[in-house]
């Protein structure tokens, strides 16, 4: 089979790939120089839509509506855009071996791709219950969500099991977003997770109490502090019962599992330096091998603000890291330098009528402000995190665009705070005056 040569190859066709392509076009790329190789069958799109509007019972989002870069208010890059720019989209193509020494990638079908510069943007894959050998976990209708094909399976199952019972395994992002959207589809929803409260990596007990109360009021049943340890199926192979560690058994027509993700870096094992579960980079997303960059979920990069190194599995970083890497590549070609990546962590989620944003670091002491009663008609509340007398992180539910901008500024500037009481009393007023 003939080899294909490119000056730049982006391996992976997700969010980071779309934003990297746009940056290449901005910086100037000649037709035929850049290729994106993706195992997905579609051009890069905004993955967050899959757990939200893609699953709505009415007015659901569909491609080409949410190709990158609409998620951040930018131009929608349709397949024709790539064609016009001479950027080759090599879709439905899984790379199965990567040899960095010879700068060669090989696909499952045996195609060979050579590059001068490689950007690894492979993202993450879902952790499956079959990975832990949970008994019966290979039953039909035990579903996961990462790519658009997974979302289509969910859409099918929702249609087929109208009014049925859904068990959501996991109390993280997927758990919370999927249980909400399943309820909107008029399914009977039960969430199960092992921790004492949902989203424990970010939420305090108080934040979680609001969301758990709000979800319960909507009709979501929540079972905490236990695990799914087995499944029973019908004769046709479809899941029937979820068995919990505490002995309870739940009937289920559909099970959605969201128990975390794993960065996809196996192709490079032993070839690149790793740290904190990802591929280690510098502030320009250069890896330990010359001409190889990595961005998005797989990159472990220096977090300048906090003086440490981290891996971030959120869309804002995937976009910004992609842009940073391309800028660094183009600058180095003309012997110029660019500023180091200086990332302010930004995470968000939306479900029902709720929408929260978080900026900064959730370390130190935390204090709540505002109305966090799940019974309120218009709940609006937030949290400040204070470390060494400075405000280092802010969470806000139902903020306006201006208020969200204000909390981002606080997290970036880290203003001093006299006391937790001051912040609790001033609430959003504290952020607005910074
Ligand atoms: P991404 O996963 O987007 O892309 C990786 C691409 O590489 C995929 O196209 C994959 O097929 C391809 N690939 C991998 N291995 C390959 C191989 N060997 N050969 C060829 N192709 C290969 N974040 C947030 O901040 N807010 C939100 O609301 C959400 N919502 C959300 C919903 C859902 C359902 C998911 C799964 C994730 C989110 N996220 C999120 C997280 C966010 O989407 C995620 O951090 C980014 O998509 C990461 O971008 P990457 O480009 O790194 O990976
Ligand atoms: P997560 O890490 O947010 O949550 C995993 C949850 O799984 C844990 O909180 C825990 O409750 C549960 N869990 C772990 N082991 C379990 C077990 N054996 N049995 C039952 N529950 C168990 O991961 P996720 O929700 O699966 O999300 C996957 C990826 O998608 C992450 O990278 C996440 O950042 C991303 N995502 C982000 C958003 C967002 O930012 N709004 C939305 C959806 C997905």
TrEMBL record:
Q: Which UniProt keywords apply?
A: FAD, Flavoprotein, NAD, NADP, Oxidoreductase, Redox-active center
FAD/NAD(P)-binding domain segment(s): 6-319
Q: Which reaction does it catalyse?
A: 2 monodehydro-L-ascorbate radical + NADH + H(+) = 2 L-ascorbate + NAD(+)
EC category: oxidoreductase
Instruction: Give the matching InterPro entries.
Output: FAD-oxidoreductase/Apoptosis (IPR050446), FAD/NAD-bd_sf (IPR036188), FAD/NAD-binding_dom (IPR023753), FAD/NAD-linked_Rdtase_dimer_sf (IPR016156), MDHAR3-like_C (IPR048618)
Please name the GO terms that the record assigns under molecular function. Answer: monodehydroascorbate reductase (NADH) activity
Keyword Protein transport carried by entry: no
| GO cellular component, as recorded | cytoplasm
Which spans are transmembrane here? none
Q: Which residues does the UniProt record annotate as the domain Monodehydroascorbate reductase 3-like C-terminal?
A: 344-431
Q: What is its EC number?
A: 1.6.5.4
Cofactor names from the entry are: FAD
Which family is annotated?
Answer: Belongs to the FAD-dependent oxidoreductase family.
User: What is this protein's function?
Assistant: Catalyzes the conversion of monodehydroascorbate to ascorbate, oxidizing NADH in the process.
* Annotated protein name in UniProt: monodehydroascorbate reductase (NADH)
